[in-house]
Amino acid sequence: AAAPEPSGLVGRLFGRATAQPEEPRRALDDAMLEELEDMLVQADLGVETALRVTANIAEGRMGRRVSSTELKELLAAEIARIMAPVARPLPIYPKKPQVVLVVGVNGAGKTTTIGKLASQFRAAGKSVVIAAGDTFRAAAVEQLQVWGQRAGVPVMVAPQGSDPASLAYDAMVRAEAEGADLLMIDTAGRLQNRQDLMEELAKIVRVIRKKDPEAPHNTLLVLDATTGQNALSQVETFRKLADISGLVMTKLDGTARGGVLVALADRFGLPIHAIGVGEQIDDLDAFDAEEFARALVG
Ligand code: GDP
């Protein structure tokens, strides 16, 4: 019978498996490392990170003959090492309400992620208030209301086109009055006018600090993992607009295997608080470095 086609990131470097009891081996030489590097770049790790990962694997092992399984283990271990420090759940503050500002480009999955997070906090016995801070997009506000209903969480809205900062302030007042544990504030994601968006975000921060000088306690950037290297430039952009404290990576259920997460972790070291793995309310998982590394390597 024909041996199965090699698969996964590393399998392809070794060619078709044979029926021999011994796995084929290849020397870790320049040619092999170059192929590995190309493969990592194709997998969205980006050139810089691919080079670093390859160099670390080569370190002290040049010329050694390795099997596909050994190389997979080395690669998975190296990726898990990069990812372990960023695999951190959303820090919970003792202060009430904990204010979570949620930013990201339209379509990244902000609304969905807020709904999923609200549902998880509710399930953990926390009271949550959501503020629909993207006051310009009526559809976004409606979507958020639908998610609020699903999660059993009130969603504060304001008239279309009104000042998001004023809504955020009202939401702070309400969350404090109700003794809510958590206030999540959605924000606009139109990058067409960055200056505008920067001022809008800065103003939201300014007014909520009138109620709590330490707020927002978290500023989450929601990124679509299927956008590949684009996610890196979104971090660059949003770091200039807001004080990003952590990431949520969405759409990791699709064909994208999320190589860009390694590039993000390597370049920015921002915590990955959660990953979106589908469109349903329960489709939000904690980020597990080992599991991710194994899945990525295949
Ligand atoms: P927003 O514009 O940033 O608020 O983005 P939305 O929350 O409206 O999400 C945009 C689209 O992405 C919607 O169709 C969501 O159902 C979808 N989406 C969000 N998160 C995920 C995810 O983790 N997996 C998948 N497959 N789809 C997602």
From TrEMBL:
Pfam families the UniProt entry points to: SRP54 (PF00448), SRP54_N (PF02881)
Topology within the bilayer: Peripheral membrane protein
Biological processes per GO annotation: SRP-dependent cotranslational protein targeting to membrane
Domain AAA+ ATPase: 96-243
Key word Cytoplasm present: yes
Broad class of the protein's primary localization: membrane
Bilayer-crossing regions: none
UniProt xrefs under PANTHER family: SIGNAL RECOGNITION PARTICLE RECEPTOR SUBUNIT ALPHA (PTHR43134)
Family statement drawn from the similarity comment of this UniProt entry: Belongs to the GTP-binding SRP family. FtsY subfamily.
Protein name per the record: Signal recognition particle receptor FtsY
Organism: Paracoccus hibiscisoli
